[in-house]
Design goal:
The chain is an alpha/beta fold. About 50% of the residues lie in helices and about 15% in strands. It contains ten helices and eight strands.
C-alpha cells in the first residue's frame, strides 16, 4: 500500500508550505487539494455560474480541465497559479467545496495522486474522507488572529492593500462555513496528531511533524536523509 501522510486544517496555518517541504524531504508526491477547489471557483466565476448552485457546479467539477505541472497550476492550459491565491479565490473555494456533488466529483481525481513512492496531501478532509487509510494524519491549526496577521504580511510584501480586521472576519467566516458544512466538515480525524502553529515558526512545525514521520515512516526518512 502506498504510504500516505495527510495534513488537514483551516486556511493560513501553513499546510501548503509544510506539505511541500515534507514532500521534498521524503521524495514523495504532493497534493494541494485546496488548489482544486480554488480552480473550480475561478472557472465557475469566469463562466458566470452561481457558486451556490450545485447543479451547475457539479458537471464542471467532473470535467475540470486542470493540470499540475512543475509546481504550476493550469486551467485549460492557462497558468492560473497566482490567480487562485487571492482572497476572493479562497472564499470562492470555500463556497463551492460545501456542495456534496462537487466533493464527490473531485474525490477520485484526488485519490489518483496516491502512488509510489508516497504522497503528502493537504486540505480539509484528506485524513477523514479522501485518505482515511493514511498511516499518519496531521491536523494543523492556529488562532484566526495569527492566521490573519500572516496573510496580511504576505499581501503587504506583494504590494497588495489589505485590511487586517477584515482578514480576521473573512477567516472566521470561512472557518465557520468549512466546519459546519453537511459533507466532509473541517475536523481532525480521530487518529490525527494535533499541531497548533500559533506560536511556532514553519521550521518548528516541520521539526515537530518530522518526529512523527520518523516514528511512522522510518524507512522513508532513511531514504530522504
Amino acid at each position: 500500500m502506498t504510504p500516505i501522510l495527510t495534513i488537514d486544517g483551516p486556511s493560513g496555518t501553513g499546510k501548503g508550505t509544510l506539505m511541500q517541504r515534507l514532500a521534498e524531504r521524503l521524495g514523495w508526491h504532493a497534493l494541494d487539494s485546496g488548489a482544486l477547489y480554488r480552480v473550480l471557483g475561478l472557472a465557475a466565476g469566469r463562466q458566470g455560474l452561481d457558486l451556490d448552485d450545485p447543479e451547475a457546479l457539479t458537471p464542471l467539477a467532473a470535467a475540470l480541465p486542470v493540470e499540475f505541472q512543475a509546481g504550476r497550476v493550469l486551467l485549460s492550459g492557462e497558468d492560473v497559479s497566482d490567480a487562485i491565491r487571492t482572497e476572493e479565490a479562497g472564499m470562492a473555494a470555500s463556497r463551492v467545496a460545501a456542495h456534496p456533488g462537487v466533493r464527490a466529483a473531485l474525490l477520485d481525481w484526488q485519490r489518483r495522486f496516491a502512488r509510489a513512492p508516497g504522497l503528502v496531501a493537504d486540505g480539509r478532509d484528506m485524513g477523514t474522507v479522501v485518505f482515511p487509510q493514511a498511516r499518519l494524519k496531521i491536523f494543523l491549526d492556529a488562532s484566526p488572529e495569527i492566521r490573519a496577521e500572516r496573510r496580511y504580511k504576505q499581501l503587504k510584501e506583494k504590494g497588495v492593500d489589505a485590511n487586517l480586521p477584515q482578514l480576521v472576519a473573512d477567516i472566521r467566516e470561512r472557518d465557520a462555513r468549512d466546519r459546519s458544512r453537511p459533507v466532509a466538515p473541517l475536523c481532525p480525524a480521530e487518529d490525527a496528531v494535533l499541531v497548533d502553529s500559533t506560536q511556532m515558526s514553519i521550521a518548528e512545525v516541520l521539526d515537530r511533524v518530522l518526529e512523527e514521520v520518523r516514528r511512522v515512516f522510518p524507512e522513508a526518512i532513511a531514504r530522504g536523509s
